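Record type: monomer structure entry
Structure origin: computed from sequence
Chain ID: A
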Amino acid sequence: MEKEYFVHETAIIDDDVTIGKGTKIWCFSHILKNTKIGERCVVGQNCVVGANVTIGNGVKIQNNISVYDGVEVEDNVFLGPSMVFTNVINPRAFIERKHEFKKTLMKKGCSVGANATIVCGTTIGKYSLIGAGSVVTQDVPDFALVYGVPAKIRGWVSKNGYKLEFDKNGEAVDNSDCSRYVLSNGRVTMISENTEEK
């Protein structure tokens, strides 16, 4: 029976891996055991995913990325080339700390720029945008634009990734799709959208 997904001949897929329809696994990548990858995902070359990792639908994992045990990636997340995850706060080569892995959650629609580092134990909010080369050491709110070392909130972006400019009432509109947002108490919420995806 023909597979509903593509795996390059140089990629390695371990046992007990689930791969969704339309997903593409490119050259020299390795998907470890007990990992689930959703539909319409792209795993670039020279990536390692898992073991025990869950990847949502529509996720783009660019070249040279390792997604470790303890990382959960929701739908439509973009992971830029050579970005880095960690899974232990205080690693030592001579101490086994696999039981100390800290969970990292990448929420729906967030994007991480090339060469950024996400320190374990953090939650990256929905539709947030992490600038290239940043080091993220704490949770990132939904729709936040963060960058720097360490990364700090520098503004806010829409679901489509455009910078939001808030008026005196704390409201903003993304003219690309007429979606509307409100900024209150240091958090942004989408109050209406005119797109098909929910």
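Annotation 1: The mean pLDDT is 95.
Annotation 2: DSSP finds no helices and 25 strands in the chain.
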